[in-house]
Amino acid sequence: MAWIYALLIFAAGAIVGAFAARLGNKSLKQQKELKKDLDKSKYELEQYRQELVDHFACSSELLDNIAKDYSKLYEHMAKTSTELMPNLPDQDNPFARRISTLEPVAETGNVQNQPRDYANGATGLLRDEPEKVEEPKAS
Protein backbone atom coordinates (compact mmCIF):
# COMPACT_ATOMS: atom_id res chain seq x y z
CA MET A 1 0.00 0.00 0.00
CA ALA A 2 2.89 2.37 0.69
CA TRP A 3 4.07 1.78 -2.84
CA ILE A 4 0.74 2.88 -4.24
CA TYR A 5 0.81 6.11 -2.21
CA ALA A 6 4.36 6.75 -3.34
CA LEU A 7 3.38 6.20 -7.00
CA LEU A 8 0.35 8.49 -6.65
CA ILE A 9 2.45 11.23 -5.03
CA PHE A 10 5.09 10.80 -7.72
CA ALA A 11 2.46 11.03 -10.48
CA ALA A 12 0.87 14.08 -8.87
CA GLY A 13 4.32 15.70 -8.55
CA ALA A 14 5.09 14.93 -12.19
CA ILE A 15 1.79 16.51 -13.30
CA VAL A 16 2.35 19.58 -11.13
CA GLY A 17 5.98 19.83 -12.41
CA ALA A 18 4.89 19.52 -16.05
CA PHE A 19 2.25 22.20 -15.51
CA ALA A 20 4.78 24.53 -13.84
CA ALA A 21 7.32 23.94 -16.60
CA ARG A 22 4.69 24.74 -19.24
CA LEU A 23 3.78 28.00 -17.49
CA GLY A 24 7.46 28.87 -17.14
CA ASN A 25 8.10 28.16 -20.82
CA LYS A 26 5.38 30.60 -21.91
CA SER A 27 6.94 33.43 -19.94
CA LEU A 28 10.40 32.45 -21.15
CA LYS A 29 9.12 32.37 -24.72
CA GLN A 30 7.53 35.80 -24.24
CA GLN A 31 10.81 37.11 -22.81
CA LYS A 32 12.71 35.83 -25.82
CA GLU A 33 10.21 37.45 -28.21
CA LEU A 34 10.38 40.72 -26.31
CA LYS A 35 14.19 40.61 -26.35
CA LYS A 36 14.13 39.98 -30.10
CA ASP A 37 11.71 42.89 -30.64
CA LEU A 38 13.87 45.12 -28.46
CA ASP A 39 17.03 44.25 -30.41
CA LYS A 40 15.20 44.89 -33.69
CA SER A 41 13.95 48.25 -32.42
CA LYS A 42 17.44 49.23 -31.26
CA TYR A 43 18.88 48.33 -34.66
CA GLU A 44 16.19 50.33 -36.49
CA LEU A 45 16.77 53.30 -34.17
CA GLU A 46 20.52 53.18 -34.85
CA GLN A 47 19.89 53.04 -38.60
CA TYR A 48 17.53 56.02 -38.32
CA ARG A 49 20.14 57.97 -36.33
CA GLN A 50 22.79 57.22 -38.95
CA GLU A 51 20.46 58.34 -41.74
CA LEU A 52 19.76 61.51 -39.78
CA VAL A 53 23.48 62.22 -39.33
CA ASP A 54 24.07 61.62 -43.05
CA HIS A 55 21.16 63.91 -43.93
CA PHE A 56 22.48 66.75 -41.79
CA ALA A 57 26.01 66.32 -43.12
CA CYS A 58 24.73 66.56 -46.70
CA SER A 59 22.48 69.52 -45.81
CA SER A 60 25.39 71.29 -44.17
CA GLU A 61 27.54 70.83 -47.25
CA LEU A 62 24.77 72.11 -49.52
CA LEU A 63 24.16 75.15 -47.33
CA ASP A 64 27.89 75.86 -47.30
CA ASN A 65 27.90 75.74 -51.11
CA ILE A 66 24.92 78.11 -51.25
CA ALA A 67 26.67 80.55 -48.90
CA LYS A 68 29.83 80.50 -51.02
CA ASP A 69 27.86 80.99 -54.21
CA TYR A 70 25.93 83.86 -52.64
CA SER A 71 29.19 85.48 -51.53
CA LYS A 72 30.61 85.12 -55.03
CA LEU A 73 27.47 86.66 -56.53
CA TYR A 74 27.53 89.55 -54.08
CA GLU A 75 31.23 90.14 -54.72
CA HIS A 76 30.59 90.10 -58.47
CA MET A 77 27.69 92.55 -58.18
CA ALA A 78 29.68 94.89 -55.96
CA LYS A 79 32.69 94.94 -58.31
CA THR A 80 30.66 95.35 -61.47
CA SER A 81 28.48 98.08 -59.96
CA THR A 82 31.57 100.23 -59.40
CA GLU A 83 33.07 99.30 -62.78
CA LEU A 84 29.91 99.85 -64.85
CA MET A 85 28.72 102.94 -62.99
CA PRO A 86 31.86 104.73 -61.76
CA ASN A 87 30.13 108.12 -61.44
CA LEU A 88 27.29 106.77 -59.29
CA PRO A 89 27.25 108.46 -55.86
CA ASP A 90 27.96 106.15 -52.94
CA GLN A 91 24.53 106.75 -51.39
CA ASP A 92 22.84 105.45 -54.58
CA ASN A 93 25.03 102.36 -54.90
CA PRO A 94 23.51 99.59 -52.73
CA PHE A 95 26.87 97.80 -52.61
CA ALA A 96 29.02 100.83 -51.67
CA ARG A 97 28.90 100.15 -47.93
CA ARG A 98 30.03 96.58 -48.25
CA ILE A 99 32.67 96.86 -50.99
CA SER A 100 35.40 97.78 -48.52
CA THR A 101 34.52 94.89 -46.21
CA LEU A 102 34.31 92.20 -48.88
CA GLU A 103 36.69 89.32 -48.56
CA PRO A 104 37.38 87.13 -51.57
CA VAL A 105 35.72 83.74 -51.37
CA ALA A 106 38.28 80.97 -51.01
CA GLU A 107 37.98 78.22 -53.57
CA THR A 108 37.98 74.75 -52.07
CA GLY A 109 39.17 72.94 -55.18
CA ASN A 110 42.38 74.21 -56.73
CA VAL A 111 42.09 73.70 -60.49
CA GLN A 112 45.85 73.80 -61.06
CA ASN A 113 46.54 70.88 -58.71
CA GLN A 114 43.83 68.59 -60.02
CA PRO A 115 44.99 65.44 -61.84
CA ARG A 116 44.61 65.37 -65.59
CA ASP A 117 42.60 62.73 -67.37
CA TYR A 118 45.03 62.56 -70.30
CA ALA A 119 48.72 61.92 -70.87
CA ASN A 120 51.30 64.21 -72.46
CA GLY A 121 52.20 63.02 -75.97
CA ALA A 122 51.53 59.68 -77.56
CA THR A 123 51.52 56.56 -75.45
CA GLY A 124 51.18 52.87 -76.07
CA LEU A 125 51.03 51.78 -79.73
CA LEU A 126 50.98 55.31 -81.12
CA ARG A 127 54.33 56.51 -79.84
CA ASP A 128 57.28 56.73 -82.24
CA GLU A 129 60.00 55.12 -80.15
CA PRO A 130 59.80 51.35 -79.58
CA GLU A 131 59.74 50.32 -75.99
CA LYS A 132 63.05 48.90 -74.76
CA VAL A 133 62.64 45.58 -73.04
CA GLU A 134 65.44 44.51 -70.76
CA GLU A 135 66.30 40.84 -70.92
CA PRO A 136 66.98 39.07 -67.65
CA LYS A 137 70.68 38.36 -67.11
CA ALA A 138 71.70 34.75 -66.91
CA SER A 139 73.93 33.97 -63.96
Count of helical segments? Answer: 2
Structural class: mainly alpha
Total beta-strand segments: 0
Main sheet properties:
none
Mean of residue pLDDT values: 77
Helix content: 55-70%
- Terminal CA distance reads 103 Å
Q: Report low-confidence residues grouped into runs of 5 or more.
A: none
Q: Beta-strand percentage? A: under 5%
Regarding quaternary structure, what we see is single chain
What overall geometry do the principal axes of the alpha carbons give? elongated
Radius of gyration: 41 Å
Secondary-structure element order, N to C? HH
Pfam families: ZapG-like
Region (Disordered): 104-139
Organism: Photobacterium chitinilyticum
Family: Belongs to the ZapG family.
What labels describe this entry?
transmembrane, ZapG-like, cell cycle, single chain, cell shape, elongated, 2 helices, transmembrane helix, 139 residues, mainly alpha
